[in-house]
From TrEMBL:
Family per similarity comment: Belongs to the N-acetylmuramoyl-L-alanine amidase 2 family.
Uppermost EC category: hydrolase
UniProt-listed InterPro entries: Amidase/PGRP_sf, Amidase_domain, NAMLAA_amidase_2
Gene Ontology biological process terms in this record: cell wall organization; peptidoglycan catabolic process; peptidoglycan turnover
Name this protein carries in UniProt: 1,6-anhydro-N-acetylmuramyl-L-alanine amidase AmpD
Superkingdom to which the source organism belongs: Bacteria
Length: 193
């Protein structure tokens, strides 16, 4: 790891350890980043719902929507807030629980071989310039230690089941910012199941 990392934790993020992780399978080739979107409650930004969900401290009675996800144990490696601040919940050396039933390039179970990045937002809404700027720093930092082959959306690895980050995410802008080969970042429209 470079000086930017310590045991899979990026020094550019605020560390908020989640209990929701497990070991990756032996020999897993971690070479993909899966982008998601999340807001809790849906469409509301800036609160502590995401942090509480990923740390199993969410008060299920605090909002009617929370009752619909009661008991859910999930996580992602990173969350990029609307203001561009980055939180890290799981070391990239471990498996976060972000993708569920998924596949990409004939590999099943994306959690085994991917790094999950949640963008605070809602499927279909646009994302903030500060979030793209944060990705412009975070993704090369990950690439420096994991040789990332693909950055894809949850919609790409679970088409028909998930739609995030959705049509409001600007894949073209991300590709231009990173100046990565076009094969590493998909077209906006996910493949059909």
């Amino acid at each position: 790891m470079t000086d930017a990392w310590e045991a899979g934790w990026w020094r550019g993020a605020t560390r908020v350890p989640s209990p929701n992780f497990s070991a990756r399978p032996a020999g897993a080739r971690v070479d993909t980043v899966v982008l998601h979107s999340i807001s809790l409650p849906p469409g509301e930004y800036g609160g502590d719902g995401i942090r509480r969900l990923f740390t199993n401290t969410l008060d299920w009675s605090a909002h009617p929507y929370y009752e619909t996800i009661r008991g859910l144990e999930v996580s992602a490696h990173f969350v990029v807030r609307r203001d561009g601040s980055v939180l890290q919940f799981v070391s990239i050396d471990e498996r976060a629980w972000h993708a569920g039933r998924s596949s990409w390039e004939e590999r099943e179970a994306a959690n085994d071989w991917s790094i999950g990045v949640e963008l605070e937002g809602l499927e279909g809404d646009t994302f903030e310039p500060a979030q793209y700027a944060a990705l412009e720093k975070l993704l090369p930092a990950i690439d420096a230690v994991r040789a990332i082959r693909h950055v894809v959306g949850h919609e790409h690895v679970a088409p028909g089941r998930k739609i995030d980050p959705g049509p409001g995410f600007d894949w073209t802008d991300l590709a231009a910012r990173l100046q990565w080969d076009a094969q590493r970042i998909p077209a906006a429209k996910p493949r059909q199941a």
